[in-house]
Amino acid sequence: QVQLVESGGGLVQAGGSLRLSCSFSGRTFSIDYMAWFRQAPGKERESVARIRRTTGSTYYADSVKGRFTIPRDSAKRTVYLQMNSLKPEDTAVYYCAARVETSTQYGYWGQGTQVTVSS
Fold it and tell me: Which contacts qualify for 110-115: CB closer than 8 Å, 24 or more apart?
């Protein structure tokens, strides 16, 4: 099993920056992808960014390319979502998630953290 605990989030002015953290524990060696999702009220959940654990390859949604990055500290078993140049439309609940190598879906999720960007 894999456990995920999120931290960070909060209120920030448009144009500002915020960093979310997601700490992994348990059978982390079985993780294929680690990812960040977000969901705003009345909208579908969308994938924001993901990183492949074994290679470090990253992927970003078009809406956040050039603004968000997904650095990690493998020794601390922590992945981050570094959000820069934040926009009001980035306001959402953000979730970190993990997909193990034997699964086709993200089966492990953090508790979610609210990010609010004021204009």
Answer: 110/4, 110/5, 110/6, 110/22, 111/5, 111/6, 112/6, 113/6, 113/7, 113/8, 113/9, 113/20, 114/9, 114/10, 115/9, 115/10, 115/12, 115/18, 115/20, 115/38, 115/83, 115/86, 115/90, 115/91
pLDDT at 46: 96
The pair of structure tokens assigned to 47 is 């994938």
Using pLDDT thresholds of 50, 70 and 90, give the confidence band for residue 1: confident
Write out pLDDT tens, residues 11-31: 999 999 999 999 999 998 899
SS (H, E, C) 61-77: CCCCCCCEECCEEHHHC
8-state DSSP, 85: S
Are 96 and 22 contacting, i.e. CB atoms less than 8 angstroms apart?
Answer: yes
For residue 108 the two structure tokens come to: 């492990």
Q: Using one digit for the tens of pLDDT, what is the confidence trace for 30-41?
A: 999 999 999 999
